[in-house]
Amino acid sequence: MVEAVILCGGLGQRLRPVLADRPKPLAMVAGRPFLEWLILAVKSAGIQRIVLATGYLGEAIQQALGDGRRWQVELTYSREPQPLGTAGALRLAAHLAGGSPLLVLNGDSYCRFHLDQMLALHRKRGAAATLWLQRQPQAGRYGTVELSRNGDVIRFTEKAGSGPAPISCGVYLVERSVIDRIPPDRSVSLERDVFPGLTGSGLCGIVGSGTFLDIGTPQALAKADNLLHEEFMRLQVQPTGLEHGRQYLETSLSVQRRSADACLDQVVAAADAVAQSLKDGGKVLLCGNGGSAADCQHIATELVCRLSRQVDRPAMSALALTTDTSVLTAYSNDSGFEGVFARQVEAHGRAGDVLIAISTSGQSPNVLRAVASAKARGMITVGLMGEGGRLAGEVEYRVEVPDRDTQHVQEALLPLEHLLCDLVERAIYGPPDAGDPHVSP
């Protein structure tokens, strides 16, 4: 049985401007991390064991994908101690996979490959390595390949030339004897060092067809949803209710874990600002829509009442601008919904007060207008949001969950909101007195 290694340890430097908080293979494409689609593609080829060769932010990949049970595959991890290149990473990971040849995939590109066709040619030619190729109209930025009629590679040139040509798609069958000859503990490239050396001595290629995409640039990543949507839908397996539930909860937990890393400093800074305003006699106003409206009421309740049952304290001044149905409906009917929160900020907000604006997309027009109104009045502005929206750049203090899926952003915000309230309580009234016998458990 063939086993697979996915090379997903690159630094992804060209994507840093749009993907600073995660490794490239975890870029979201069609609602899932890109690497998840590669796992589904490998599974659809009949492979059950996959080694993920990680490097940069490898812990984030392992945390996000786990052991593979949600896709009925077995995932194991090989982590580079320093960048080893594609060949060096394969050499390090190979001891965790069994059999020969190994199917090797680059973790930042996708094409529809046919493992049975690759294996047939590989075995027929007794190949050392077999490459999956596709003809590309403009092949200059890829590895271009020239084949003989029987499938032997005549020439392999990495990222050179221009015009139409077969390109290497980052899917290979590689014999273990080739892997064992890769020098250990140093940076070596499959494309530049290993494959050119096999030309004329067992390097084969097979040309397929279909969509190919390398997500290595911001421009290519931006196109990925549209280009690969139909292809990825083909890979989706409808899970049972239990499997779907497990997958949903694991994804939600992954977003919350990433939020804990990304948002802790942000929450602490926001809580300090809220606490100082309340100490100075200010109040907290909150606005948001839908589920965010419910969050506004939740936070206001925790501040007016109390979060911890072990803290006996006075009320803190907080008002959710989502609750007065007469104001909401009258203003919306007469003047439009986009100003419904800004109008209330105008009525209730004063310099030094706090506006907490909640928007999972970070794009809600009425929330953005409320923030503008608050800033004009000298109020402190705090934004709770998912990534990618305008709100992050409009508020003084942002708490930005590193995801764009609405439900998972909302799920990640709740513990962050509780933490904010807890920090405010502690800053003003001190930590809970767990030993007070007069406080109900």
Number of strands: 18
Main β-sheet description = 7 strands, mixed
Low-pLDDT residue intervals, each spanning 5 or more residues: 434-441
- Measured between the Cα atoms of the first and last residue, the distance is 58 Å
Beta fraction = 15-25%
Binned, the helix content reads 40-55%
SSE-based structural type: alpha/beta
Give the strand order of the largest sheet, numbering strands 1, 2, ... along the chain: 5-4-1-6-11-8-12
Global outline: elongated
Rounded to the nearest angstrom, the radius of gyration is 27 Å
Number of helices: 14
Mean pLDDT: 90
What does this entry look like structurally?
Helix 11 runs parallel beside helix 12. This protein has helices spanning 34-44, 58-65, 85-93, 115-125, 176-180, 190-198, 218-235, 241-279, 291-304, 325-335, 340-348, 365-376, 391-394, 406-429; strands spanning 4-8, 28-29, 32-33, 49-54, 74-79, 102-106, 109-111, 129-136, 144-147, 153-157, 165-174, 203-208, 212-214, 284-287, 318-320, 354-359, 380-386, 397-401. The chain contains 14 helices and 18 strands. It starts with a strand and ends in a 12-residue tail after the last helix. The chain is an alpha/beta fold and 441 residues long. Helix 13 (391-394) links the parallel strand 17 and strand 18 (397-401). The longest helix has 39 residues, at 241-279. It has a 7-stranded mixed beta sheet, sandwiched between helices. Strands 15-14-16-17-18 form a 5-stranded parallel beta sheet, with helices on both faces.
